[in-house]
Amino acid sequence: MEREPVVQVGLVVAAVAVSAIGPKSYGTWLLEVAPILIALPILLLTHRRFPLTRLTRWLIVGHACVLALGGHYTYAEVPVGFRVRDLLDLQRNPYDRFAHVVQGFVPAIIVRELLLRRTPLRAGRWLFALVTFTCLGVSAAYELVEWAGAVIGGSSAEDFLGTQGDVWDSQWDMFLALLGALGAQLALGRVHDRQVSRMPMTKLSVP
To answer: What does the DSSP 8-state code read for residue 49?
Structure first.
């Protein structure tokens, strides 16, 4: 494995390990870092056969750090969020809102890469639309997971939900993920195209 991917894996492992030291709740921590614990082994197993672009790998590292930090403190109590709340005179800790923008931003580039390299799709309107809809679907699925957690855990699931008393929290979460997905494609699409063009293509055949 090349040096940079090793560094990236090391950063993710370190972030998860540090976040596991005295979190507010180990149950909430496990739920929040579960995507990392699932995704990291998959990425390691497929790295040689299907290496991701440098941009995508670094975005995944950043997303993992966001999840790890939220898992340690819970999204409603991340200290930097309180500082932003006080600075901007907000009514709630905005870290949860930020994390849901990231939830759309990073998966958009991952999905975009998979579609460009594994299907006949090319950059354009159809790709833009399919990436956006996929990210919305992922966000909606995550909200269903949170709903299931609330049903099973009752009031004890409040830390995982992070609603902070907002009855429209689920709608805000999906809207922010949508903004993240749109923003990622508009801001990084051309850079991503250049990196994808240098990667090995494994297109699926069309019947």
So the answer is: T
